[in-house]
């Protein structure tokens, strides 16, 4: 139920973001989602791709330091209170949300969010107890093809 995310540190200067993006595009990788956070000195590019192992190798061969982390992708009702219900479940279980960002995919009237938790296994268990089903990598990729 976990999705692999690649994280890269980038200098905070013009063109730094385009280099890894062009590299991945040239190698045929489609980005499922991404997030960019910054400080004055550097940025962190976080992204999800279908074949993360090959993407990681390609980026590393170009000199990037790449960290792999687990995300939990979750369908969230696209309505007022949809995210609030998810967060209430996690809060009750004592799970911390470190960060989150959205996918551009929607499925059956639901949005799709990517969460980074301090304890992904505990988060998955808590969500499942409340009837919320995280989306697997295979399901994500299938939705892209539909």
Write structural notes for this entry:
- With 146 residues, the protein is of the alpha+beta class.
- It has two domains: 2-69, VC0802-like (2-Layer Sandwich); 70-145, VC0802-like.
- The protein is 34% helix and 40% strand.
- The chain has helices spanning 18-26, 52-61, 82-92, 120-129, 137-145; strands spanning 2-11, 31-38, 42-49, 66-77, 97-107, 110-117, 134-135.
- β2 (31-38) and β3 form a beta hairpin.
The computed structural class is alpha+beta
Query: Which CATH-level-2 architecture of the largest domain?
Result: 2-Layer Sandwich
**Rg of Cα set:** 16 Å
Uncertain residue ranges: none
CATH superfamily membership of the largest domain: VC0802-like
Helix content: 25-40%
Question: What's this, in brief?
Answer:
By secondary structure, the protein is α+β, with helices and mostly antiparallel strands. The chain has helices spanning about 20-25, 50-60, 80-90, 120-130, 135-145; strands at about 1-10, 30-40, 40-50, 65-75, 95-105, 110-115, 135.
Question: What are its keywords?
Answer:
146 residues, alpha+beta, VC0802-like, 2 domains, 5 helices, 7 strands, globular
Topology:
Layout: E1 2-11, H1 18-26, E2 31-38, E3 42-49, H2 52-61, E4 66-77, H3 82-92, E5 97-107, E6 110-117, H4 120-129, E7 134-135, H5 137-145
Antiparallel strand pairs: 1-3, 1-4, 2-3, 4-6, 4-7, 5-6
């Amino acid at each position: 139920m976990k999705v692999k995310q690649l994280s890269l540190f980038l200098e905070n200067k013009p063109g730094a973001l385009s280099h890894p993006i062009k590299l991945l595009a040239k190698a045929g990788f489609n980005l499922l989602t991404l997030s960019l956070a910054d400080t004055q000195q550097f940025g962190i590019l976080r992204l999800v791709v279908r074949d993360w192992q090959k993407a990681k190798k390609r980026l590393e061969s170009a000199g990037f330091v790449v960290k792999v982390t687990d995300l939990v992708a979750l369908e969230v009702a696209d309505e007022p209170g949809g995210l609030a219900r998810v967060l209430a479940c996690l809060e009750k279980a004592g799970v911390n949300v470190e960060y989150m960002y959205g996918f551009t995919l929607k499925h059956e009237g639901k949005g799709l969010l990517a969460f980074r938790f301090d304890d992904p296994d505990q988060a998955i268990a808590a969500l499942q107890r409340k009837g919320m089903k995280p989306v697997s990598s295979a399901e994500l990729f299938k939705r892209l093809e539909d």
